């Protein structure tokens, strides 16, 4: 893994895909703290200068391990399978992310599910941002968990309209398939 990171260090274009094998956030954070301790012992940084940015830079996704720039923090974390826990995954990096708990298993996630997640994410972000701005709080707030279909999104708004259109689309397909079978019989 280290040789792959070294060979791709200069890559500076396009999106980044992180693949985490045998990853736990607690192990990653412990490693980052150990790295910071080494930096303090080596005199590279004074103990009172250590900030959360210093620790974040030493995470597996941080710039101290990944070259000039670290991996961007996720804005949306989707937990599939219906579980409502994070399973020790990217805990530091997702502090400000929107968390979506979706009842579908990852291999069964369809394009329609993905589009719905993005629409609900967009609605969640728009609502959060307006509320925070109205209260005079910073532009980006702390992440809030939501469950697919929560807060009435299932019944109203863009996500609800999308769901209705999706159901009509599949109903039309089922009707078309039924007509095709009937015409084959005659």
Automatic annotation (TrEMBL):
<dbReference type="InterPro" id="IPR001441">
    <property type="entry name" value="UPP_synth-like"/>
</dbReference>
<dbReference type="Pfam" id="PF01255">
    <property type="entry name" value="Prenyltransf"/>
</dbReference>
<protein>
    <recommendedName>
        <fullName>Alkyl transferase</fullName>
    </recommendedName>
</protein>
<keyword id="KW-0808">Transferase</keyword>
<dbReference type="GO" id="GO:0045547">
    <property type="term" value="F:ditrans,polycis-polyprenyl diphosphate synthase [(2E,6E)-farnesyl diphosphate specific] activity"/>
</dbReference>
<dbReference type="InterPro" id="IPR036424">
    <property type="entry name" value="UPP_synth-like_sf"/>
</dbReference>
<comment type="similarity">
    <text>Belongs to the UPP synthase family.</text>
</comment>
<dbReference type="GO" id="GO:0016094">
    <property type="term" value="P:polyprenol biosynthetic process"/>
</dbReference>
<dbReference type="GO" id="GO:0005783">
    <property type="term" value="C:endoplasmic reticulum"/>
</dbReference>
